[in-house]
Write a structure and sequence with these properties.
Structural class: mainly beta
Largest sheet: 10 strands, mixed
Shape: globular
Low-confidence stretches: 1-32, 281-285, 747-755, 1115-1134, 1325-1342, 1441-1530
Distance between the termini: 91 Å
Number of helices: 18
Helix content: 10-25%
Amino acid sequence: MQRNRMDKLLQRSLPGLLLLSLLYSMCLSQGNRANPCVTSRAKSCTECIRVNKDCSFCTDENFKQSRCDFRENLVRYGCSKHNIVFMQKETLTLKEFRIDTSLKRTQVTPQQMSVKLRAGEEANFQMDVFEPLESPLDLYILMDFSYSMSDDLDNLKKMGQQLAKFLRELTDNYTIGFGKFVDKVSAPQTDMRPERLREPWSNADPPFSFKNVIRLTHNIDDFSKELMTERISGNLDAPEGGFDAILQAAVCKDIGWREDSTHLLVFSTESAFHYEADGANVLAGILRRNDEQCHLNVAGTYTFDTKQDYPSVPTLVRLLGQRNIIPIFAVTNHSYDYYEKLHKYFPISEIGRLQEDSSNIVELIRTAFERIRSKMDIRADYTPKALKTEITSMKYEKTETGSFQVVRGEVGTFDVRVKAHEHVGDIPVCDLPEKDRKGFIHLKPSSFSNKLEIDASVICDACPCEQQTELTSARCDFHGDFVCGQCVCHLGWQGDMCNCSTSSSTDNAACIRPGEEEPCSGRGLCLCGKCQCYSEHLTQQFEGTYCEYDNLQCPRTSGFLCNDRGRCYLGQCMCESGWQGPGCECPTSNETCLSNNGMICNGRGNCQCGRCICENPNLYVGPTCEVSYSLGFQLACENIRSCVQCKAWRTGEKKGKNCTGCPFDIKKVDELQKDGDINTICSFQDEEDDCIYHFTEENPSTGGNRTVLVQNKKECPARSFLWLIPLLILLMLLLGLLLLLCWKFCACCRACLALLPCCARGRTVGFKEDHYLLRQSLMSSDHLDTPMVCTGNLKGGDAVHWKINNNVHKQGFSSLALNPKDMITYGLSLRLARLFTQNLAKPDSREHQQLQKEVEENLNEIYRTIPGAHKFKQTRFRLQPNSGKRQDHTIVDTVLTAPRSSKNDIVKVTEKHVSQEAFNDLKVAPGYYTVISDQDAHGMVEFQEGVDLVDVRVPLFIRDDDDDEKQLQVEATDVPVGTARIGRRLVNITIIKEQAKSIISFLEPAYSYSRFDKLAKIPVGREILENGKSQITLRTRDHTAQEGKDYIFTESDLIFLPGEKRKEIQVPLLELTEIDAFLNNRQQKQFIVDLIDPKFGAKTGKYSQTIVTIDDPEAVDGIASMTGLGQLPVSPRSRLGAPLNPNAQALNSRKIRFNWLPPPGKVAGYKVKYWIQGDPESEAHLLDSKVPSAELTNLYPYCDYEMQSCAYTAMDEGPYSEVVHCRTLEEVPSEPGRLAFNVVSSTVTQLSWAEPAETNGLITAYEVTYGLVNEENRQVHRLTIPNPTQNSVVVDDLLPNHSYVFKVKAQSDEGWGPEREGVITIESQVDPHSPLSPVPGSPFTLSTPSAPGPLVFTALSPDSLQLSWERPRQPNGSILGYMVTCETLHSGGEPRNIYVEGDNPETTLTVPYLNENVPYKFKVQAKTTQGFGPEREGIITIESQDGGAFSQFGTQQFTKEEVYSLPTEYSTKTSVTHSALDPLYADGMLLTTQRMESGSTLTQQVTQEFVSRTMMSNSSGTFTRQTDRQFYEA
C-alpha cells in the first residue's frame, strides 16, 4: 500500500521533475558549452574551417563579431548566409544493385560509394550482405610429405570416395585439389648428399619444397587415381616449409580457385613450421625476402625455394584474406600448440586435432566447415591514416577473433561508420600527406569476391575567397591585404583597417583595467589600444581584454585541468561536446542514469552529473534508484523478531514481560508459502536452543489488525554427544600411558612398533654424493642443489637438520674472531602453505605485491624480539624442484639485517614457528627452512611418506676475496622428526676460481639524467686480459628513488663477445606524477645499479656499482594541489557496472591514451589491462588508475593492441568493459639485417642485406651509400632503392686493392632509420693499370670444363683423410675423370698425382700416408676430351696440440682454403671484416673456409659448426668426437 502511494506520487511529480532537470541541464550546458571556433582565434578562413567540423567563417566586410564561429551564431549576429563559408560533408552512392536471394552466390550492396568528410566528422550508412545456404566450394588439401607422414598418406589414398560423399552433402558445385610440401632443398633443411637427394628414404621421392599435384577439379575419380600414384619424401629438420606452400597455393592461378566460391585450404602436418628469417642461414646462403609472387613451373613445382626466404605470418594473413581463402589446420598432438596460437592470427580459421594416421581427416574437415560457415569477417582494407572505419551489427554477435556469427540464407545488414580523425598523433589531419588523407577503402566479407569500394577523403580545401586576395588594398589603408572580408596587416601595423602603427602608438589608457594602474595587468604590451598578452611558455598563456586571465586557473577534476575534456578560456572551462560543469566533470547525456525500463532514475530521483540522486536513499539504493525490497524486508523482519519469539515460543529478550508492545496476533501454520520469486519469509536462530524458526506477515499491504504466520516446527540441529568427550579423553590418556610404559621398559616393543605401518624399519637418510668439484667461471648461480636420499622402508616421514660451513680448508678457521656487533644480512627461506603461480614470479604483479606485504608484516612482527633486527626486505618467491610432494608450494626468500651475535636466536625463532606451521597469520608448511649468515647456514628438509630424494639448496658464499681453491662442508646433523638414521653425513664442495680473464666496471661512480631523457643510458666497460666471452648481471635497487614510481626495475645479463670492450645498459625513467609536481617535491631522487654474478672468468673492477641521480623538471608555481585522490568509501551493497564508452587513441609510436566514462556508483579506482592483439589475454599487462583514463606506455611501434578496464571499490570489483582496439603509430625502422658481399670480380660486388628486425611500420625504401675508407673528403656514392622488397644491389665501379665502407638504411613513412655498416676489400695481385685489369684473360677455352666444386676434407685418422668434391657447374662435355695433386706446402718434395675416373655428381677419394702438423696443398682438375680445366685448390693442416697420437682429449685444428686457379699474372682474393664470435670450446675443432671463383665469387667465412666424427686409432680404439661449430656470415 505504501509502495502504491509512492508510485502514484512519483507519476504525478515525474513531468515536473523532468522539466526541472531539462532546464537545469540547458543552463549548465550554455554556461560551459565549448566554442572551439572562437577560442581557436583563427586568423584566416582556411584556418577557421579546419578547427572543427561545425566552424564557419563570415566574409562580410562590415561584420564586427568574431568571424570564426558556429554557423547559427554568425547568422544570429548579423552575417548574411551568402557571406558564410561552410564546408559540408558529402556521402554519395555511386553503384547499387539490389540483392537477389535466388542466386546461389555471395552478394554485397551497395558496391561503390564516395565519402568526403571534414576533420572530426563521420558518415554512417548500411551495407547488406547475402551468403546463400548452398554456394560453390573449392577444397584444396595441402599435405606434409615428410617421411613421418607415410601412414597418413596411405589412409588419405583410401578416402577418395569418402571425401566425394562429404563434398556432395555440402553442395553439388564443388572442386577438390591436392598439393604436397616438404622443405627447402638446401642445408640444413635437407640432407644434401647425392644418394639422399635421389632417394631420402626407401621407396621415397626426391625432396622438394612444394608441388601442386592435382589442380582443383570436379572429377573425383581423377583425383583418387592421381592420388594413388603419390609417394612420400623426406628432409632433415623437424620444422617443415609449409609456409612456402601456403603462399604459392594462395597466389598461383594454376591452383584453380574460382571467383565466386568459398575457398578452403586444409593444411595437414605433424610438425612445426619455418617462418621468415629461418631461410636466411649461412648454410643455404642469405636468401632475399619473399616476393609474394607465383613461381611454379609447368610441372607445378615451386622453383624459388632456394632463392628466397619463407614468408612471415602477417604476410600469409594478408594474402589469404585478400584472396578469400580460409585455412583449416589439421595437425597432430605433436604440433597442436604451435598451430593453436597461429590460427588465432587469422580472422576466420579453424584447427582440428588429427589422429596419428590421419584417419579422422574427413570428420575433422566436416566439423571445421560447420563452424566456419556460421562466421563472417568483414575487413576494411587500405584505410588511410586520417580515417577510421568500424563495422558493427545490432543483429549479429561478434566472436573472440572479431568475426560475426551469421545465419546463411538471409540478408545481413551491417552498420558502417567512417570517421575522419582530427589529429593523428599530435599532427592535424590536414597537415598529413595527401596519400594519408584520401584513398579507396575496400569493405569485403571473408570468402566473398564482391566488395564495397569507398572513395574516401578528408576535406582540407582552402576557402575560395582566399584565391581573390587584394594586395596592399586601399580598404586596409595600403598597409595590409584584403582577404575574405578582413584586413591582414603588414608587419608593424594593426587595427581593423591597418591604420595604427605599433611603433608610434603611445596611448595606454584603453589597456588599463578599471581599478588597476598597470596596462594589460602587467601581463602584456599595449599596442594600438589593444593588449598583446604574453605567453610564459608553451603551456601557460595569458588572455582576455586586459590579459587578466591565464589558461591554467580553471577548476581541476581528479587532478586534470577541465577534466582533460575541455579548454581553459577566459578563466572558465569550455567543455568539449558531451561534457559540462565548472570543471567539465559531468556528461551531458543521461545514458548513465537510464534504468532497465528506460526511465531516468526509475522516476524516483534526478540525474545530476551523470549520477542518480535518489529521493529516498534509505529505500532506493540502486545505481538508478531501484527499489531495494530485500533491504526493506530485512528491516521489517528485524523489527518484529523479538515479539514473535515472545508470543510464539516464550523466549527472547521480551520473555516474562507478557510480550508488551507487540501490536499483532500470532497464527501457527504447518508450512509457510513463498510469494512468487520474492522471499517474504523471515528466518532467525533462537539463542536459547540454537533452533531456527520461520515467520511471515499475512497480507502486509492491507489495513486493520496485523497477523503474523509462524511455522509450527523449528529446525533444530541433531542432539549432541558432548558427554562422550570426557570419556574419550580418558581412554586416550590411558592408551598413551600404556604405550609409554611399553616403550620404556620393554625392548621388544621397539621392534614391534617398527612393524606397524606408521613406523619405518631400517630407513636411512643421507647425502647422495660425498664430494662436488665446481669451477667458478662455469657456475650459473650462487647455490648448489645437493641431493639427499632416503633408502629402506619409505612408510612414514622424516625431517633432517643440516648445516654448512664456509672456508673449512683454512687452518683454525672460526667465526668467533669476528665482531659480534657487526650488522650482517641473514637470508631466510620458508615454504608457504599455498601453491605457486606464475604471477608470484613477477615483482610488478598485484598478487606478488600483496603476498610480499603479508609476508613482511608477519615476519617483522615475529622477529622484532631479536635485538637490533631491522625489517625484512628483498622478498622474492620461487619454486624448489625435487622437494617431495610439496614441490608445487611457494618458497619465499627474504633478507633480514641483524647483529652477528643474533644468529642462534634467529635459528631458534625460525625453528619454533616452522614447527607451529605459522608466523602469526602467515601459514607455512612444516619441515623446511633455511637461515643463511655470512659464513654458514642452517636449515631443515623434509622427506614425506614415499619420497626417496629431496634437494638441499646449499649457499656457496661466493666472494671476490675467496682463495683460488676453497672448500665448504655440508653436514646432516640430526633427525628431529621421524625414526630414520643418518647414513652419509658429510659432503664436501670444492670451488676452483680461475684467474680473471676480464675486468668489468662502470666508467664513473655516479651519473645524472633528466626525466625528459626517459632512459638512463649507463656505459659499462671491460678490460680484456684474455680474449673471450664474458658475462655479468646488472640489477637496480632503491636509494631515495622508488622502483615503479621514479624508474622501472631492471635486471638483465650483459654478454661481452670476444673483442667487445663496451656495453650500454638502459633503465627506463618514469614521468613525474602530477601529485609530486603539484606538491613541489624537491627531494633528490637516486637509485643504485649493481654489477653482480660475473661469469666466464670475469671480475668486477673499480666501480662495481654506480649511483644514478634523476633530475626532476621544475614544477609550475601557483598550481593548486590535487584533491579527491583518496579512495571513496563504498557501500558493500553497491554493485558496479562496466565502464562506459571506452575509446583509445594512439599518441605516438609507443603510447596510447585510453579513456572511458565512469559507471554509476562510488568508484575507488580502475584496473586496466592491455595486450597485443592476437596474444592470449592471460599475457595482458595490468595498470591501476584513480581516474577514468590511462596512458599505456613502452608499447611496440605500429602494433595492434587490445584493452579494457573495470572499476573497483574497497569491497568489490565490477565487470570489464568491452574490448577496444588501437594501433600505435609508426616509427623509423631499426637498422637493416646483416650485410653480405658476393664478389663478382675485382671491381664488381653484389651487396645483400636482410629486412630490419624491427620494421616499426611499412618499409618504403632503402638507401645504400659507399665510399673509400681511408680517403679524406671521400666521394660518397648514394643509391636509393624505392622497391622495399628488393634487398640487394650490384655495385660495379669499385677499385681493386681498396677498402670500401658500405652503409645501408631503411625508410618508412616516419623517416630514415639507423645504418648498418660493413667493410669490404677486393685485393688483386695484378697492377691496376695493367691492360689485363680489371678482367683478366683466360688460358682455357670454352670447351674445357670449369673448376670442380668446393673441396671437403674429412679426417679419418692422424695420417689419412677423405677428400670429396662436386661435379663442375659447366662440364662443357662428358667428364672423363679428375687429376688430384697432393704436395707439402713449404718443404717442397715430389708431388703425388692420383687420377680418378668417372663422372659422378660427387666424387670421394681417400688419401693415406700423411703426417701430423704438416700443411698439404691439394689440387683437383676435371678432364674432358678437350683437356684439363682449371684447378680447384685446398690447403689443410692436421694439427695435434699434444704433439702425440690422435688423442681423444687433444684439440685438432683443420684449416682449409679453397682458391680457383687463375692465370699467373692475375689472381683475386676477397676479405670481409666482421665481428668475432664466441671462442671455441677447449675440446673442439676449428674449420675456416674461404671459397673464391673468378667471375662469380661467393665468399663465406665458416668459423664454427657442430660436427660428429668417428676417429680410428690403433692405440686408442674407436671413439666419437663432438665439437661446436657455428656458421657466421658478415
